[in-house]
Amino acid sequence: MNIGSMVPKGNMMNTMCEITTDFELPVVSSGSRPLERRESEENWEVLLAAFLDSQDIRQTSRDTYYWGMVQYFRWIESSGRVMKGMTAADIMSFKSYLIKQKLSALTISSYLTAVRRFYAWTENTMLYPNIARSVRPPRGKKGFKKMHLNESEASELLTYLKAKSLRDYAIVNLILRTGLRTIEVIRADIGDIKHKRGRRILKVWGKGFDDKENFVILGDATWGPIQEYLNTRGKTRKDEPLFLTDGKGHRGARMSTRSVQYVCKEAMKSIGLDGHEYSAHSLRHTTAVLILKNGGDWQDVQRVLRHASPATSQIYTATIEEEVRLDRNPEGILDNVI
């Protein structure tokens, strides 16, 4: 198995996976010939390509499955295993291997999801039994680990970016004021900016949804930097990404979640927020916390952050209670008493 030849060319998040093989890739769908077991065992590139072609998913999910399966194939190869002899116990060993690598629960979960989907496909195509059906992702700790920014830190962050990069300023300002996820930022097109009942909105491509039924409101403070950034691009089309890459060799393409995360992380590092607990998702937490601290309730948080479960939004109230507890410092009352 030649893993190197399976790596897609260019920016994987922006382009289709280009898998180099010496074979015509079979299309596994209704009416096409099934893969022969011998063919699949000898040509992993063909097997992976056929699996990805069979999945009716977004490109970002396709990329995630691709990398998850690459990790799985590399592990099979390095551990001396062979595909035809794999069992459910081997899948559990792969899970243990991922945990020992000290990967995040989210990363491990994404890899295991890819493996589960892969074996569901091999079972449907009668290549291999589904030995991954019972594997479950590791449990993550409840609540959220990422730190939010306080008002002064958020203002300092925006001031820094405003002087550094108009695009980056518009991105971070948008996330802070609307709580968008990085995936939602990169999926946004210019044509998603519309008006609803006199208010400017941005329709949101949420997690796993195609119908764009959610939206966030773009107030003047949010829209201003975006408009200024778009003006620098000259004439634009509605189907263009809202934010484009500006790096050498990749200028003018849709940004990836990784590039947005990098923008946010580097900006926070530049103002002294350099711990692992600060990330792009910290900005989304900041949106929730600042809404609560300034008169909103958990229902407002749920509407803005588009949480499916109210319980997720209510988690943030614990953060507010802790901050109030520290700010009021009732123990300090006794400093002048005894």
Give the helix/strand layout.
Layout: H1 37-42, H2 44-53, H3 59-78, H4 88-100, H5 105-124, H6 151-164, H7 166-178, H8 182-187, E1 193-196, E2 199-204, E3 214-217, H9 220-231, H10 257-270, H11 280-293, H12 298-305, H13 310-328
Antiparallel strand pairs: 1-2, 2-3
What does it look like?
The protein is mainly alpha-helical and 338 residues long. Helix content is 50%, strand content 4%. A hairpin with a 2-residue loop joins strand 1 and strand 2 (199-204). The chain has a three-stranded antiparallel beta sheet. The termini are far apart. The chain has two domains: 3-124, no CATH class; 151-328, hpI Integrase, Chain A.
Q: What would the average pLDDT be, to the nearest integer?
A: 81
* SS elements, strand count: 3
CATH superfamily of the largest domain: Intergrase catalytic core
At the fold tier of CATH, the topology name of the largest domain is: hpI Integrase, Chain A
Radius of gyration from CA coordinates: 23 Å
Q: How many domain units?
A: 2
Secondary-structure element series: HHHHHHHHEEEHHHHH
Structural class: mainly alpha
Distance between the termini: 75 Å
The helical percent reads 40-55%
Poorly predicted tracts of residues: 1-33
Strand order of the largest sheet: 1-2-3
Q: Which keywords apply here?
A:
three-stranded antiparallel sheet; hpI Integrase, Chain A; 4% strand; 338 residues; mainly alpha
